[in-house]
Amino acid sequence: MTYKTLLVDIKDKIGKITLNRPEKRNAYSPQMADDFAQALDDLRYNDDVAVVVITGAGEAFCAGMDLKELFFGLKQNNPKEYDRISRVVTASRGRTLRYFPKPTIAMVNGFCFGGGFPLVECSDLAVAADEATFGLSEINFGMFPGGQVARSIANIMRPRDALLYSLTGRTFNGKEAADMGFVNFSVPRAKLEEVTMSLAREMTDKDPAALKATKDSYRFSLEQSWEASMSYTAAKEQEVFVAQNGGWLKNGVGDFVEGKYKPGLQSHTGVKK
Ligand code: ACO
Q1: Which of 7, 33, 47, 69 lies deepest, with the highest CB count within 10 Å?
Q2: d(CA 30, CA 37)
């Protein structure tokens, strides 16, 4: 797996995607859009990967869309290619990442602007460095947070924060991002990798079908009526039952009934067996 603008490492069932244009603050270029879509496909079908972590090389997580190559370049000079890349971005970052079948964590190490926000929002979990700098800078160059960014901030930011930061272009740091619930928590940058990987490891031994159902049930229930959600999750329960050959009931619950472990305090590591 080699990509022009990404590094992808797999270790201990964790697939780590590093946006790797540090000299350009990991601005999301057309090449990066194609690479990211490919990397998500590669990790999706790789059985050695249970959890995906997304981060950036150097000082930045992602300085937003590449204003030079994508907007100043393609948008003006090659509208068809601009349209193709926009579709790739929407499909990969907006849909594939959001509904990725394995848990995903954004590890926000530094600058995160505009188009970097959907990477954080569409990941299931997010951990930031205290020192990271977030900003909706669009207003500073006479634009507004449109497309996926608009939807991302509406999904995950508190209404007052979304409007405050997008109307003013003010920045906020990792600690503030945690206080407002944009990330789960923040830690000093020196501890970021260790803490994030430890969080990822909490999920690598859990049952993959149950992890996927957890995500699907949460995300799709948000968009469904109460009745539809009850029906959908009942069907999901059957899906998990079949995928595990009845494992959660037979072994997950069965071993508790036999006094072998306490699921309130421990995780069963082999419900499927
Ligand atoms: N698009 C294209 N190139 C970028 C971007 C970007 N979003 N961000 C940084 N770069 C490039 C710079 O142009 C520079 O390239 P050069 O060396 O060829 O001149 C290089 O990355 C380093 O950038 P500096 O500005 O020198 O780095 P510094 O650490 O001082 O500042 C910062 C980093 C704050 C991220 C600054 O580069 C910046 O303001 N970037 C734009 C952020 C932004 O507004 N992003 C768009 C959000 S809106 C959207 O995504 C739809």
Answers
A1: 33
A2: 11
Confirm or reject: Cβ of 113 under 6 Å from ligand 1.
yes
Whole-structure pTM value: 0.97
66 lines ligand 1 (CB under 6 A): yes
Q: Is the CB of 117 under 6 A from ligand 1?
A: no
Over residues 42-73, the pLDDT tens digits come to 999 999 999 999 999 999 999 999 999 999 99
Element (H, E) at 187: strand 185-187
143 within ligand 1 shell (Cβ under 6 A): no
CA distance to 25, 134, 154, 192, 239, per residue, from 183 (Å) = 20, 11, 15, 13, 31
| Of residues 144, 146, 103, 147, the one with CA closest to residue 126 | 103
- Give the residue, by CA position, lying nearest to ligand 1 atom 35: 63
| Ligand 1 atom with the shortest distance to the CA of 66 | 1
Answer yes or no: is the C-beta of 3 below 6 A from any ligand 1 atom. no
Atom of ligand 1 nearest to the CA of 113: 47
Task: List the alpha helices (DSSP H) in 90-145.
Answer: 117-122
> Which helix (DSSP H) or strand (DSSP E) does residue 39 occupy?
helix 30-44
Domain boundaries, the chain: 6-204, 208-257
Question: 208-242, pLDDT tens digit by residue?
Answer: 999 999 999 999 999 999 999 999 999 999 999 99
